[in-house]
Amino acid sequence: MNTVSMRLPGEFLREVDKRAAELDIARVEYIRRAILAMNRAFEDTKRRDRLKRASLKVRAESMKVNAEFAGIERAPDCASDACRAGNRAASPARSCARAVR
């Protein structure tokens, strides 16, 4: 294990000591856990940002697919009342021929 030396303001160190005592752990363990928590939070933020960027890349295509499905559900040549109402489950025997099965 490596050693790190740092200078901390007195008030900051007193708060670290107080929190460590409340948890019944050594100061160094408290600082170690704080660093691990910060690293995890940083990785979580990076992961969230990557997912957001990926989602934005496919958003336009997803909207096109949603529009296509909406068009199928409201097809003008659909003969059944249940299909026109968008409720195929209410009358499966009279379901629209264009419905995806």
Blueprint of the fold:
Layout: H1 10-23, H2 27-73, H3 81-84
Helix pairs in contact: 1-2
Shape: rod-shaped
The largest pleated sheet is described as:
none
SS elements, strand count: 0
Mean pLDDT: 81
Instruction: Supply the number of helical segments.
Output: 3
In which range does the helix fraction lie? 55-70%
SSE sequence, one letter per element: HHH
- Domain module tally: 1
Instruction: Pick out the low-confidence regions.
Output: 90-95, 97-101
Question: Span between N and C termini?
Answer: 61 Å
Strand content: under 5%
Q: Helix/strand/pairing class, anyone? A: mainly alpha
Describe the structure.
64% of the residues lie in helices and 0% in strands. It has 101 residues and is mainly α. It has one domain. The longest helix has 47 residues. The chain is rod-shaped, with a radius of gyration of 29 Å. The C terminus is likely disordered.
Question: Gist?
Answer:
With 101 residues, the protein is mostly helical. The protein is built from 3 helices and no strands. Helix content is 64%, strand content 0%.
Features:
single chain, 101 residues, mainly alpha, disordered C terminus
